[in-house]
Amino acid sequence: MYRKITGEKLKKWLIGLSAQAEILVPAKMNGLWTFRLFHNQELPRNFLNSRIPPKNLFFEPLKALLGWKAADGSFQVNSCPAPEAARVIFGLKPCDARALRLLQPVFTGDYPDVFYAGNLSRTLLLGQACRVQCQGSFCSEVGIDRQDSLDFDAFFREIPGGYLVRVITEKGNTLTGEKEFFEESSAGEWNSAKEEIRGKNETPLFNLEKVKAGARERFPDEDFWMRVSAKCINCGICTYLCPTCHCFDLCDLQRPGQGVRLRCFDSCAFPDFTKMAVHNPREEKWRRYRQRVSHKFNFFYENFQTVACVGCGRCVAHCPVNLDLREVLLEMAR
After folding, report:
1. Which of 318-329 are b and which e, b meaning 16 or more Cβ less than 10 Å from the residue's Cβ?
2. What gap in Å lies between CA 37 and CA 279, rounded to an integer?
3. Going by fewer Cβ within 10 Å, which terminus of the chain is more open, N or C?
4. What is the C-alpha to C-alpha distance for residues 252 and 78, in angstroms, rounded to an integer?
5. Rounded distance, CA 93 to CA 151, Å?
């Protein structure tokens, strides 16, 4: 199902929605793209991907899980409620929406995480097609279509004067069904509006099937991993900016008579990542880097039949020592 809307009506539509739900839209803060609450501001066009992935809106960097109090000989434990308020995120890019879907079986499988599941169920995802290739990105090599995606409730593609909309889910159909704002469109009009991505690679950087095979074959090659990880400084930027990394730790913040248990992001880049009381199985840097790459392109694939990388390029663009994952994957694919 396809619809279209003018730019002016889109803003009015979002204003109306803001009375029913929290609306987040792309915004530039201190020179960086992020998502901020919609307060009737003009919507940006031709914006790039956010520096911090929208994953953080679903799997928070720091989350209180439960609290406890001890008083007068009693001990009470109270779990923190999962969020319920309706939310709409407009302007998500295809790579980030795919990342949310990749994490779904991790957090909603055998041991469901009520916070992630709650955030996902309460949020409607409205995507927007890319028009420019982001710095460092290789999304098409891992199967992302920057101009089309089924990972949303509705997907918007810019046209002169407004947007075409591909309706994907029943929620998306209900949301965009208001005839006051939307007109009916067609698959033909949708297909004819597909654009060439500016700055895109003329040829694929690597073959994903060869990368997956290389991840298995290279795993025991210690010399390879020591060489490709040599300049890593263990800062963790690659994991904290990654839309699919999901390792976390638990810690307790205690005060006299009360405390809270927190879940916080962790990173395989950190020397204490898997340190136990009497042993650290990944004390060397190369072992931890091998874990990061192998998890994304080997272990995750074995468990869920897809790689845990969407090629957004954040780890490439923002690594302080220019450790380019694309070069590692290209070498693995040879």
Report:
1. ebeeebbbbebb
2. 46
3. C
4. 14
5. 10
Q: Which two tokens stand for residue 263?
A: 């879940």
| Residue pLDDT, tens place only, 174-217 | 999 888 999 999 999 999 888 888 888 878 899 999 999 999 99
Question: Where along the chain do its domains lie?
Answer: 2-62+81-192, 208-248+266-333
Written as six digits, the tokens of 201 are 């690679």
Q: How far apart are CA 34 and CA 51, in angstroms?
A: 7
Identify the CA nearest to 293 among candidates 327, 266, 264, 248: 327
Spatial distance between the Cα atoms of 91 and 35, rounded to a whole number of angstroms: 9
pLDDT of residue 334: 85
- C-beta of residue 176 within 8 angstroms of C-beta of residue 3: yes
Question: 171 pLDDT exceeds 90?
Answer: yes
Place of tokens 């928070």: 60
Angle of CA points 197, 202, 206, to nearest 5°? 110
> One-letter amino acid identity for 89?
I
Assigned token pair, 227: 């060489």
Extract the tokens encoding 86. Answer: 């309706």
Q: Lay out the sheet containing 32-37: strands in order across.
A: 32-37, 22-29, 87-92, 123-128, 154-159, 162-167, 2-6, 183-184
Cβ neighbourhood burial of 220 (10 Å; 0-12, 13-18, 19+): exposed
Q: What is the pTM of this model?
A: 0.92
* Cβ count within 10 A of residue 332: 23
Specify the pLDDT at position 74. Answer: 86
Please tell me the distance from the alpha carbon of residue 87 to that of residue 123, in angstroms, as a whole number. 5
| Ramachandran category for residue 136: left, alpha or beta (phi over 0 → left; psi -120 to 50 → alpha) | left
